[in-house]
Amino acid sequence: MGQANNKGYLEQTETIKTMIQTCIQCGTCTASCPNIEFMDITPRHMWRLLMTDHVDQLFSSKSFIMCSSCYYCTLRCPRGLELTNAMSQLKQVASKLRLKQFRRSSLFYEAFLNSVKNHGRVKEMEFMTNYFISMKNPVIPFAYASLGIKLLAKGKIRPEFSFGRKGKLTALFKKVAELEE
Amino acid sequence: MKYLYYPGCSLEGTSAEYDISTKVLMEAVDVQLSEIEDWTCCGATAAESQSHLLSYVLPARNLALAEKMNSSNQILVPCSACYLNLKKVEEAIKNDKDLLRKINSVLAQEDLVLKGDVIVRHLLDVLSNDIDIETIKETSQNKLSGLTVAPYYGCQCLRPFTIFDDPEDPHSMDELIRATGAQSFEWDMGAQCCGASNTSTKPEAGMVLVGRILKSAKGADAILTVCPMCQMNLESSQKKISHKEGIDLEIPVLFLPQFLGLAMGKTQNDVRLDLNLSNPGRLIKARV
Prior knowledge:
The structure holds two protein chains of two kinds. By secondary structure, chain A is mainly α.
């Protein structure tokens, strides 16, 4: 799917913009981030782009995708802003808009939640298998093979699949989707 | 003492030894656990990356089920990610009644109602605040003296909700470690991030964070964790990272209740050391 236009981003990001509107650009978030060296723009810069409606630049960056939810920025923000939460909401928008650079994470989370919807609990082997299938890249599974074999050998993951089964949490997921329309 | 118990998905699979050793330890300190009936996934970090409402509804379902049980109004949670997700709902609905209504309109699909009268507690919170430390001291009789272990807290049991420890400089594990006769390793990586799911989706970044923690733990006999994600990240790539860095970074990584259980005379089999991915050999040779 193609990239959404600027207007599409703006509607989706209005709530996030409200969340960070009292940012004073001090950069404590940037200084606290453990993943900063893997980001192309800093968290402080991201909030600035959001405040000045340069969201297209924000969504062409990979920075928010690198957030590992350590909550250091949220803890230390002198304005008490929920910055980790803002990062998660940016991920939600990226996932909804099917942004290319978020594809791998998005497919990972979708496979995870599908397993939850079907069984109520995550079945790790099913979830990772479906993730690999959705990636449509035959090379990626090899990176996980040695860990997968170790986990299988210890009986920590089991082959379990749920073809054709009625989902345990389908009704909840459906209602959530309705309310978030 | 009685608590409701929420194991979470990892403790049923990849971190079965965390579930087993938690139960073994709790029995040894005279705590009764009642597992929440029909519990389901808390949403992990997946739900919050996909849907705001779902990230509240999935944990809320479990709180609503817990409220139906009578044995306790406190839920003990060993997994830090589950703890944070359940806690997030407990805290949010105190003030946000609109959110509570919205959650309940979804839970109505399963005839469940969330009121908000259960308290979510992390295993480490319960161990360091509710359990009499003398029980551990008396039972372990300094069995593990001579060992130095590095307490690793990770992120989500400490932040953003600062309930039981200093989120920048945590020390709640120190007293528990000393109660076994062992020493607590002095380092400043205990509250740093392990990379979380980046090790799966962005390994080029995640592995760097894990490598930093393993390098800082040099000199300790083992690392102790209180989170399945941290445990998996710190254990699963030690060989690969050692090879890449050109130094031996292999070290046993144990869940805190496995370590305390061993100190209190439980066997390696009782706390299922065989399920760990790192090699606990050095630790066992030393003492256990």
